[in-house]
Structure formats: C-alpha cells, structure tokens
Amino acid sequence: SLAMDSSTGSRGPAGFATQANALFRKNLCFQKRNLKTNACITVYPILVCVLLVLMQRPIDNRIDPSKYSCGCACVDTAADGSCRRTECGAQHSTPDQVAYCQILSPPRWPALIQVPRPQSRAVRTASQPSNGLPEPTCRVTRSCPAAFLVTGSNRSLTESLSGELFPALSSPLNFTDYLDTLSNIVSGSDTVTLRRQLLEPTFISEDTLYVVQPRRQSNLSQNVSVNAGMIPLRLNVDCIQGLSLWRKSASVINDELFKGYRQRGSGGGKTNEFVAGYDFLNTSKDSLDINIWFNSTYNRKVAYSPIAILRVPRLVNMASNAYIKFLKGSGAKMLLEYVKDMPKVGSKLKVQINSILSTLLFTWIVELIFPVMLTYLVYEKQQKLKIMMKMHGLKDGPYWMINYAYFFGLSAVYMILFVIFGSLIGLRLFTKNDYSIQFVFYLIHINVQIVLAFFASSFFSSVKIATVVGYIYVFGSGLLGGFLLHFFIEDTSFPKGSIVVMQMIPGFSLYRGLYEFSAFSGNENGTGGMKWANLSDPVNGMRTILIIMVIEWAILLPLAFYFDNVSLLDGRLRKRMLVFFKCFRMRAVSFKRYSFGRLGSNVLVEMENPDATLEREVVDHLLLEPNSNYATICDNLKKVYHGMDGNPDKLAVRGLSLAIPKGQCFGILGPNGAGKTSFISMMTGLIPPTSGTAYVHGMDIRTDMDAIYTNMGVCPQHDLLWETLTGKEHLLFYGRLKNLKGVELLKAIDYSLKSVNLFHGGIGDKQVRKYSGGMKRRLSVAISLIGDPKVVFMDEPSTGLDPASRNKLWSVVKEAKKNRAIILTTHSMEEAEIVCDRLGIFVNGGFRCIANPKELKARYGGTYIFTMTTSLEHEQEVAQLVHRLSPSAKRIYHISGTQKFELAKQEVKIANVFHEVESAKCRFNIHAWGLTDTTLEDVFIKVAKGA
C-alpha cells in the first residue's frame, strides 16, 4: 500500500539482483514497444547487402567482357569459314587485353630507362636557368636531349664516369638477337608502365624505343620487326642524345629535379623533365659509392592494377658499366641482358562496388550502431529519467549491467546479420577470412564501442547535439581512416609508433582491422584470407589491433564509469573523486553531523525574523543532540548561481536551516523565482549546494546520496515518465526498486492506482502517452509514495488536477504522512491549509515565517476586511462609520464608491458591525457590503509584499 506499516521497514533496500531484475523487466517492456525501431536497426546491414547486389547488376551489364579479358583469335578455319579452333593469349591481345592473359612463361625483355616525352624534356627557362640545358626551341623540333644530373666529391672522376654512361654506336642496330643488341647500349621509353603486367609495354604497344647516345645520330633511327618467341613485335627506333650535366652538390640536383617535376599536360598524370640523377659520393678506384635519383611517379596502386613496373635496373647497370670501363678499359663490359617477371594466371575485370569502397564502407556500417547507443543514453539523461531512477534507489551497477547487456545483444545481432548476409552475397571480406578471427575481432570491437558510448554520453545533455556529434564521429573516422591512416599504413617510411598511437582511437582501430581483413581477402586472384597463423606475420597488423582494442576497452571502461558519476554535465550531486577516501568520510560523518554542523563561515542571523531564528536554534540543538524522530535537518543550506555574460551572481537559497520530524507534512509557499525548486533540487541530489548541507535520517546529502535514495520518494515539478510504458508498468518498476515483491508488490500497485483514481476502466494498463496532464501528475504522486519511503518530496503535486482528483489526492497525502516526513511546495493556498501541518513562506531564498496555517492567519491576519459600495456623495459617511467601529481602521481599496478597510479584530465586535450597517441604511442607500475574515492567501500576499 501507499502507507505501509512499520513492519515493512525490515524489508530493507533492494539488492543488486533485485534492482537488475526491475530494470531488465522495465527495459524489456520499453524495447517491446520500440520493436519496429530495433528491427530497423538490426536489418540495416541486410539492406546494405541487398543494395550492393542491386547496384552490382547494372555495372556487370555495362562491362564488355571481350575488352577486359585476354584476347582470342581463330587459328584453324574450316573450308566453310567456321572456326575449328580458337586460341587465346598475349599474341592475340590488344595492349589493354594483355594484362588479363595467362602467361606461364613470361618473355625476356630488355631493361629500359624511363625517358621523358620530347615535349617534356628539360630545357633552360626563367625558373630554371641551369647550366648546360638546351634552349626551349628544341621542344618544337622534338630534338631535346635526355638530361642526366651528376655530382660527386671528386669532380674529375665523376665527369670521367659520366662520359661512359652512354656507349656509342656507329652503325644501325642488328635486331636479329635484339636482347643481346640492346644489352650493349642504353635504351629507353617514354611509355607509362601503369596497367601493364609482366610485359614491357613499349614492345606491345609499338611505341618508340629510344637509343641514348653521346650525340644524336639520325642513321640509327629505323623501323624494325622482331619475333619475341610467339609474340611478333614492331619497333620504332629513334636515337636521342644523352646529356650529362655536372652539378656542384646533391642539394642542387634535388632542387632541379623538384623544379622539373610537373603535370604531364592535359592528359593528366605527372612526369619529370630529367631522366635521372647520379651522386658518385666518395667513389674511387677502390670502391663504387653511388646514389641514384629515379622517377617513381608511377609506383602507385589503383583499384584494378598492381604496382607498376619501375625502370630502375638499367640506371644501375649504366653506372656499373661505366665504372668497369674506368677500371679495366673500354673493352670491359658489364652487360644486363634482360629482365623477366614471375608467371601469372589469367583474369577478367570484375568491378565490385564493395571492393571499391571496401574498408571505408564496412567501417561506416559497423560504426553506425554507435549513434544509436549514444542517443539512447543521452535521452534518459536529457529527460531526467536516469536521475529519477537514481532518486528511487537504482544503483550504478544494475544500470550499467542491464544497459551494457542490451547494447551488446543489439550490436551482436547487428554484426551477425551483417556477416551472414555479407557471406551469402559473396563479400570476400567475410568469406575469405577465418570466421573465428572475425568473431574475436568484432566481439572486442563491440565492447569497445559500447564503453565509448557510455563515455561520450557523459559529455552531452542534448539528444540533438549527441546525435550530430555521433554521426560526425562515424563518418569522420571513416574518411580520415580512408584518406589519412590508409596511406600512413602503406608508407613504409612513416613511423610505426605514430600509427599505433593513432589506432588508439576506436574508429581508427576498427578501420585498421578491416583494412587487414581486406588486404588478406585480396582481389579475384588474391590470397586465401587471414588465418590464425598469419597473426605472427610482422607485416600483418591484426595482432597489434586486437591488443590495442583490449587496451582501449580497459581504459575507457573505468573512465566512462567515473565520468558517469562525477561529470558536471550530469546535473546532480557528484561523488568524490577519490574513492578510497570513502571509508574515511564514513568514519568522520558523525563528527561532521552532530559536533559542529557548520560548513560555511557565512551564517545569516536574521533578528527581525523570529521564526527563522527559532528554527536555526532547533537545528543547532539537533546537531549537538541527535533525535531519530526528525527525518530531515537542513543546516545553513545555501545555493548561488554564478552569473554569466557580466550578470551578477544569483543567491537562490540563503543559509536555510530547517528541521522536519516524522509524521509531518511541511509546506513551502513562495512566489515564482523565490528559490523553492532550487531547495528541492538540492535535497533530492539534482544540484549540489554551494555551502551548508542537509541530513536525511542522519545521512549527509553531500556524501550519502545513494543511501538516501533508497529511503526517498520524489514527485518532481515536471512528470518524468516513459511515454511508451503503462502506469502499472511504471509502478511495477519503482516498486521493485523499493524491494517490493510478489503479492506485496501487486497489492501496493493496485492500492496506488485506486488511490490516485487510475485503477478503474483499465487506465493503469494504458500507455502514458495517452494520459492527460492530470493523469500523469497523479501517476507521479503514486510513484513517489510507493515502497514506503521515509522522506517524500513533492513539487506542486496537484498542478493540473480537477477539483475531485485534487481532493482525492489530498486525502492520499494526509494518509501517507503518518509514517514519513513530506516536504511539499505548492501555489494552492487551499492545498497548503488542508494538507500541511506547518507552512513556511519562502521569499528571496529564505523563510519569512514558519508556523501552522492557523497561527499564520492569526499572526499576520488579525484583521477583518470590511467592504461597502455606495454612491460617490456618501463615501465620507462610510469612512466615518468604519472609524466609529475601529479607530485604527485603514482603507486599502477605493474606486467609484467601493471601499475596502482593514479592521483590527481586537477593536471590533461583529454584532456592532451589523448594527451600524442597519442604522446607515436608514440614512443613505447602500448597494452592497460585506465582512470577511483574513485568508491564507491574504497572509501570503502580505508577507511576500513585506519582504
């Protein structure tokens, strides 16, 4: 029932399991009502998979399979023109098709150098007036030399070696054995090697083959046909001059190479005006010491091609050959006959959307559950539902466990569906990698993401802001991972320690893990996926990521729990920062409570207010000699709101002292802004006091709020309810928090619903969103009284109620106060007079008077109000009549013949008033008159105005 007998006190506070069970049942009901939302969240990965399949089909239809596969040709034609045998291979392929051919025995190709195109070779310009460079006119005639920059500590030796870089020929080349012929000279190409696998594109695409000579010789230019095994070749051979230019230092070479690096015209891409740079350093007759600059522009990955070929071997051979000639004479040679790649399998171009987006897409999908969890937690805080549960005794442990379990289950279902349906549609990220590794990775990440949501929720009090920031985090971490972390991982020169630090951010650690899965799943010809044995591979970062995520979880979990309890954004009384001081505080609490009791040195003594002074004396006595009969003691409680934007500080509660015994309902009256709600908020733990304290059954609101909540009931000024739960479900939840069980719980709920008129007609089984404002108010009152709380705070409980419901509510409160102390704020004078045993009129942050309603009326209302309405010419006679009745009478109202007077009760007899009025009626016309006693409202107005 609402008014439990004293025997129920042995029931004790609810334990961990009881509170967890209460919250679990409440959340289960809440989530059942939000089933559609939960279903939409969990099926989102399925929707993504379906969209990928639907988008893949038109892409597959747009791809011409003959263009993006190895070329084929008929090699045996019948008499009727039909093809009896078709053969596929590089010899039947276009340059674009060659990349997709199976080549079991790659051909041998001469090693070439990368030569700039004729229109891009280095010339003398205003920005680069370097010595030895030709005039820009050579670009028009396409006769610019191929420039090499050289330097070294020994200039004469360096110039001697650079003179031997280009072996000279006097006769046209013999291409019968083209590999041997080209190994004796320096040959090069301006063809881009990108998108060519295993084959030298210069020979496949019939581009120009440049022969680099000390001077240009027109007689070496020719067109030749070569048979490279089964592949016929046609070459356009052109002779160009190789120009070696001395520079005094490596920094000068580096500067010129940088200036010569530019866009390659309207076609896009980049090139370098110089072929290469040589620094012979400390080369001597005893040792060859050399650095080589070369153009690595095309050493990059694209979605459909591996790393391009770098034409570097011939540059090394040129320096080696020149050094051998320097040592042994012009007859000595160090030949580089050919280069050869590894065999390759055939392939076909298959553009997959999931492969193009790959890691970035999957990162977004996995992280999208994070804003859902964040907004759920912030919603409960914004609506003050979390603190409402806290004020009814819910501990942090059950709250965390139940919500953690819910988030874990939601995230697990989300990821399981994603993996299952991703595997069904053939996403290689799932199908190629070991499912046990995926299970461990996603399991750890789910836990990290949950504690990150708890941690982040401590810094938000608005759902809208939390939602925006949550999605910014999701998309921002994905984009930064794709366009920043991705390149750092692939850049072998980037410090690995810096990458590890970056991966401490949960979004980056997720991206790195998915990146490793994607790398091992590979493309169509990729690897077999990640296995447990691969974790020992130093290139594989998965083991590091798993360790990092475990560390993230271990760090974020205590931080989230700490900020959940001490963050200033939570809007309630904070716990102490150092938990290990708790025992010390508990040992010292009796000293603080009952020895001195004063927390601030600024004690307000109001000699003109005897009620406040008397109440302070009672509090001082109780602090020195505790009395268990007093439920609540306020000791010099003060609250100051610090001003902002230049505004002064606002003193909301001024050193308030108050003692309330059990069995008493104490009413607080006051105008708007007087500080009533601030006082209630401090007592219920919503805001901390600036100074002073209060004790509820001997427990300090500064340190023991958790214990106080188990014995407290609260009816807040605004209804804090779950819109989708029924009234009965609310009472079941809060009743279980107060350790009501079984039949006792059901009886208490039925009695509560009947007491506030929500039982009949099935009203208690309707969702709260269907309640009127008055019905919600009655439910809030029932919640505050269920479970036998020892102290109940009611902030304007009858607001919005009809007269019948209000009278019923008053009866409930009067019955409930027999076993507990009730502190009630109200603007209804009738409510205060009927329900409250004592009243305090609260003005400007302090009590102006404290007494029972009758005493207040007697003290501040020792007058009658006499009203009379006559014509204007008889107003003076009315005033004379009143002064005959009461010489000290005072006129308080006068307009158009209507006058009101205050008559001192000790000067007036009611019989004399009637006699004088009857006599006056004989002398002049009286339109209306009346005599009333002082009401509580008159007292309130008088005290408030006086203050």
UniProtKB/TrEMBL annotation:
It is found in: Membrane. Residues 632-869 form the ABC transporter domain. SMART domains: AAA. GO terms for cellular component: membrane. Keywords: ATP-binding, Membrane, Nucleotide-binding, Transmembrane, Transmembrane helix. Its main location: membrane. The chain crosses the membrane at residues 356-379, 400-427, 439-461, 468-489, 545-568. It comes from the Eukaryota. InterPro entries: AAA+_ATPase, ABC_transporter-like_ATP-bd, ABC_transporter-like_CS, ABCA, P-loop_NTPase. One of its GO terms (molecular function) is ATP binding. Belongs to the ABC transporter superfamily. ABCA family. CPR flippase (TC 3.A.1.211) subfamily. PANTHER family: ATP-BINDING CASSETTE TRANSPORTER SUBFAMILY A ABCA, OS08G0398300 PROTEIN. This is ABC transporter domain-containing protein.
